[in-house]
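Section 5.1 Outputs to date
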Amino acid sequence: MTSLSLKERYERASLLATRHEAIAAAIDEAIADGALPAGTRLPTVRALSRELNVSASTVVAAYNALRVKGQINGEVGRGTYVTGRGANGAESDAGSPARSGWGISPPHHRPPWRRRNVLASANRLLAAYPDALDCTRGKPDTSLILTDIVRAATKAAASEVVADDLQYSGPAPIPALRAAVASRLARDGIAVEEMVVGNSAQQLMVMALSIAGRLMPDRQRIVAVEEPGYQTVFDAFEYLGFRLVGMALDEHGVLPHSLERALEAGAIAALFTPRALNPCGVSWTVERKLALAEVLQRHQHVLAIEDDQFADLALTRPGSLLDTAVGDRTVYIRTFAKSIAPDMRVALGIARPRLANALGEAKSLLDGWTSHHSQRVLAGALVDDRLDDALHVARESYRIRRDTIVATMRSELVASGAQVSGSDGLNVWISLPYGVAATEVVERAATLGVLLISGEPFYIRPGHNNALRMSVSGISNEQAARAAQLTAEAIRLSNGPSSYAIPV
């Protein structure tokens, strides 16, 4: 019989489940291994909520789930007891493979919901309030896309094309692109390793995960992700059959102890955004990068994936895990959608030779190669003499908008309990005061004249109704203060007790 307490089981299960699911999983596991035999009286709702530091409604939801499965039964005036029956009404089997490991059953298949949620909300608000300030879109400001530079590079690439450029090819970049990207990497203090060309950062992430899965075929398909984090990647990973475990953040990115917990939960890969994380804009320091590398060193099976999506517009240069002791297990991904143009569908995966060879093999099997013409256009744009000045203009414009919104809202919401942050990137993240629901603020803000997105889709599981993402790319520098004032007013007007339909 195991000596783990119910609290210890719960804390372990909570790495991969919502709170009420984790409580149910912990009790289920204890029933299965005999720690809670049939007839055992469970703690009262009030006692267990105090022990686990959760709400009473969360414990009630867990007990209800176990009661529906026939594992426990409540008797009025006597309490709640273990029935000794499993989820399907059968006697519990401590040796069942389904109850091994973390004691959490495989997740139900869920269709990708986060990106759809964001798009549906944004489209609905835009249709209903066409004249409002649009802070829903996380894509670059159209006025800051480098159209002239892309046009010149496209014209030059078209004039230089030869028949060999149009032939079947392989995953390596053309020499001109490799040289241009190497120069950019050197500016950021990132080692120039082997390169593989993909059509997007997401394609390279999927390739990297496929490699992690093949290297560790006997382990669960679990990937550690930043939370809150990029909702489209969450959907994509789950669509591929991976389970997600979150890594908590502070103003410098992933917390080392949270990475440790995620890896102990069985993650075979960890996704990091070293700069300007969408949605909250945090970036690594050099010290944080080294602290994360130290944790990764203790978990030799884990693959690190870095999505440096805002690289050429970022304010910081923390470097890459490539330059640490875990460099041989790191895939660094460089893209140019935010800095040059989203339609620039070229991404570079940089890794040491062994891992780069595996990436190249995956690329060859998926779609062979990335258009040489597109590579040539990107190479031309990266060496354009006007590029650095244009990037400086965009970098400063986004910074002004972020700083204006953060400063204005902090001033408007003094002592309210709201937290506003956004040190880099295209977004500002707002953690709402206790009792204020994001759904209510979104609707009220729209009537006032500013459109926002609830923070819920940027979490692994539904139920987070206490945060907002405010994108700066759909407004001008001059409109930033007004957008912040309207948002602050919507929060103040929404201040009051709120109910949450989903216990978490």
